[in-house]
Amino acid sequence: RVLATLPPQVVAQSGMDAITHCIEAYASVAHNRLTDNAARSAIGTAWRSLERLVQDPGDSEAGLDMAYAALEAGMAFTNAILGATHAMSHPVGGLCDAPHGAINAVLLPHVIRYNADADPQPYVELAEAVGVTAASSAHATAERFATRVAGLAARVGLPGSLTPLGVRREHIRLLTTHALADACMTTNPRTPTPADVERMYGDAL
């Protein structure tokens, strides 16, 4: 009943935040077997249930699935911590007072692509967990996964860029400074330079 009264936008934002928790925990340098299992289980459940719950908040099966997925995703990231998506999202939320899950949904595909340039394997495994068919190479599969993540966010009604959330190009340098100082950046699987973070923010505008 509680989930049935949530506005669809809140369901979409919260659901994409949970999916981000799964992906970042799985790729984190602090991951382990416990967090990997929780993240894989949660992302599979959320992937097949989020759209259903956004379209019909009264769908009790989808609501229960999303509640379990969010719990498992929380178990994963509480132990493995997160990564650059959250590190970059936090200052945007503070500056623009924008919804956290919506910010994550925009930034996540860009961070997946950035990290996958160095090591695509975690994203290949996550792609398999949600039924994304493998491409011709690991890097191509990771790219396909990033595209599907962006597609899911669009289908549940979230913005495709940071611009509607209030971010402007003149904000990027300040946001980058705060993102690089965020604790979540320490467990990102690839260590970004300021130029890397600025480029990801710019690509997300």
Mean pLDDT: 97
Proportion of residues in helical segments:
over 70%
Succession of helices and strands? HHHHHHHHH
**Which parts are unreliable, with pLDDT below 50 for 5 consecutive residues or more?**
none
- Structural class, from secondary structure content? mainly alpha
Estimated share of beta-strand residues? under 5%
Cα end-to-end separation: 37 Å
Number of beta-strand segments:
0
User: What Rg, in angstroms, do the CA atoms define?
Assistant: 16 Å
> Count the helices. How many?
9
Give the overall shape, derived from the CA principal axes.
Answer: globular
Q: Outline the biggest β-sheet.
A: none
List the helices and strands and how they pair.
Blueprint lengths: L7 H20 L5 H23 L4 H21 L3 H13 L3 H19 L2 H9 L8 H18 L16 H10 L12 H11 L1
Helix pairs in contact: 1-2, 1-3, 1-5, 2-3, 4-5, 4-8, 5-7, 5-9, 6-7, 8-9
